[in-house]
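The authors assume throughout that readers already know how a fold can be written as discrete tokens. For illustration, here is how one protein appears when written out as sequence plus structure tokens.
>
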Amino acid sequence: MLEFSDSVGRNESIKAQIDYVSSPSDSLSISYKDRNADAFEVKRYDVEIRNGRLMRPCPTIEREGFMLATHTSEVVQSRRSELIEENTLPRDDMAAINSDYANELIPLIKSLTGARDIIPQFGTTQVRFSNRAAHRSWMGTSAFAHMDFASTQVEKLIEQTIALTGVEIAPYNRQMLIQTWRVITDPPQDMPLTICDGRTVAGNMMIPLDFHGPEGSRNELVQSRVCRYDASHQWSYFPAMTSDEVLIFKGFDSACPEAMNAMHTAFDDPTVVDAIPRGSIECRFIAFFD
């Protein structure tokens, strides 16, 4: 039987550790084949992580840069094994099941953001497992605090998705990259996601990071960002998430292009006993506003 410590889901915050990049370099590089970041320095810091379920007012996409929503996925419920199998290895297309999963989320994201149009970013669905899981995929859990997008690459990513899908988008005044994250294993998980309030992160702490994906793929070079440690960072998580919940957060917003919304990473939850190895699915979207 799974056991929870008295603090799981009940305390307003927990004490845990988060890895930050501590390299003095002004720019960094990492390969998907080496997710342990041996190419640069990483330091572990003790931090306080707030329980997002108990925060009042509740976090929002516009304010903190993230929120938790209730959302049942028919794909996850009835086609979980297929979803895992189709995303074990890197792929450069949009598998049918990945399209089905993304399309389930579009009405929710539109209602929460007020966007005029929402389209899935082409080929960005990823299934991840922690090191303790029996399953394996080409991407493991994140190893340090980071953001997945850099403002220098956003227009290219949007143009790429529009070209690959053939979708027509009317002129727009604002675009936002939205990320979604959902567990596909039962709670409590061993490596949950923690996410940082973008308002507490100064832009001058940012370090550009080049992520090198599979050679010859569209993700052969992805520009992203990491951040050095600062005690003012306010981290949150949502303990014991279920597959009927989804964490939604900004990856980029043209209204504030250099904002660090929303830095995130996996962490080891010290309050959980006999945790289940984490499995999760993430999918990214492009939102267009008038």
